[in-house]
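Good morning,

Both structures are done.
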Amino acid sequence: MLYHSKIKNLTKVQKMVFISMLIAFALVLGYLERTFVPVMPFPGVKLGLANIITLISLYFLCFREAFLLVILRVTLNSFFTGSFITIWYSLSGGILSLIVMFLLIHYSKDKISIAGISIIGAVSHNIGQLIVVAITTESINVAAAYFPILAFSGIVTGILIGFTVNYLLPYINRIFK
């Protein structure tokens, strides 16, 4: 269920507008999550609503464009929140998640559901963050101790994000008909 070929016929300006809209949606989702979702009981645990846009981008854009979207989304989000310390956590998780989901989408050939891809992407995101934790604390034990909490939250949020994306893809696809 790859939609990538659908937007090949867009002009450069149309594609740029589409990517800009995706980034804007991701920033709005991030804002809504920060503002209206209660603080989770563990630091670093959140819904990751902006990952809806990352996963959607992998179905409609090439890897380079989706990568650019993640970099811009994380950078702009850090700029708007004033939280530049967390940019490394977000970038490491976002990039690792993007790579893993891209590989699953392009090489699993319908063997794994969108929810499954989202779950694996969410856990990969957490692993990317824990790599930064291990580097900054100079202790793999700190990261390893926190992994079960993040893995559980990644599974739960991955399911929610996956079902949301599965619902949205046909509607977005209609835009390009």
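Second structure follows.
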Amino acid sequence: MSFKKLIEPLKETLQRKGFTAPLPFQKKIFSKIKGGMSMFAIAPEGSGKTTTIVISTIQKLKGKAFEDAPRVLIFVKDKQAALDLESEFHSYTQGTDLRVYCAYDEKNIDDQRDEIYDGTDIVIATPKRLNKIFYLNGINLNKLKMCIIEDAGFVFRNSNLAEVTRTPESIGKCQYLVFAEEFDSRFERWLDSFMFNAPIIKA
């Protein structure tokens, strides 16, 4: 998928940022993501993984807010990663009305539950906090179109693996994208569950 096929607000933002064409790894996966394929996207730092997440998400949602329940869930390792990704989204959402929300452990959980309930399109969350909010009936996952894990190596620390694996049990049909610098053999346990034998695409 070339940048020419993106929605107008994204094309204008990319032009303003000076991006004229996708990076090599992005060329490999943009069209596959657009087509709804679940995958492991494995590439080194600097390959454009984070930008791919942002562009693909905005494109999937057509830049439009819709109802109250989130349509994209992105797992990150900690508060700083959540805030960094939120900032990246905000730099690309000019001209859209998409709502992005961060959920992490350091913030009051009741406030987070209420703020998510008020309506959001994209939730960026640490796994433990997301599951706590879910079990408080504070987030509706039934409308998810995409579930993404950014820099997925973190899931093998601090019981995050169990938290991430538990979430798909509460989701219906959804596209799953796992981004990482290296493919860890422990990812393979997902191939027979929510990743459904998804391909491993490497830079």
